[in-house]
Amino acid sequence: MSAPANTTFRTDLEFFLDPQRCIGCHACEMACAECETNGQLPMISVDYVDRLASPQTSVQVCMHCEEPTCARVCPADAITRDEFGVVHSASPSRCIACNNCVLGCPFGVPKKIEPMQLMMKCNLCYDRTSAGRKPMCATVCPSGALYYGTRADMAAMRPASEPVREFQFGNQTVRTRVHVMMPKGSRRPVVD
Q1: Helices (DSSP H) in 58-164: which residue ranges?
Q2: In this structure, what DSSP letter does residue 67 have?
């Protein structure tokens, strides 16, 4: 997918996720559902980390991988990554609703929307970000768990944290466009 001709996509703006700051308010889900391209469906979700033991929640967004597994396992070539690093939802004209992308994503992000027989996921509010505006979720997050801005601004706001965008899943190294804020000095998270 190429950017529209009137694109003002700012490459200096990045998406940051700070899971420790999520308060479980679900404002991001509601704002996401208001995004014009989602058909009133939230493309992100707030999940409980361990509901029996803690009220801690974590928001789940598409990480927009540099080499998206969801696109690689799609037999219909329905999922694309554009020149800005945004991994888009499956093209309705190509998606065969096989569920490969749902099963293949190491972050568990894509969802098959049953009534539509289509995979949908966060596309970084492309209708907004391609016009130089913030994604809906980042405009409403009261705790700053979701932030869209420059790396310098994030460093000033969170001096004890640093952004991580490389993750290890077994033998697979995944690099993402989205940054997860971790305590300073952290190495890439490893999931065995």
Answers
A1: 69-72, 100-104, 126-129, 136-140, 151-157
A2: S
Encoded amino acid at 158, one letter:
R
Q: Would you say how long the chain is, in residues?
A: 192
Q: How far is CA 146 from the centre of its chain?
A: 10
Of 123, 124, 165, 130, nearest to 148 by C-alpha is: 124
Tens of pLDDT, residues 70-86: 999 999 999 999 998 99
Tell me how far CA of residue 14 lies from CA of 102, 149, 190, in angstroms. 25, 5, 23
Query: Strand, helix or coil at 35?
Result: coil
Across 122-132, average pLDDT? 88
Tell me the CA distances in angstroms from 137 to 36, 75, 101, 124, 152, one per residue in order.
13, 31, 23, 9, 21
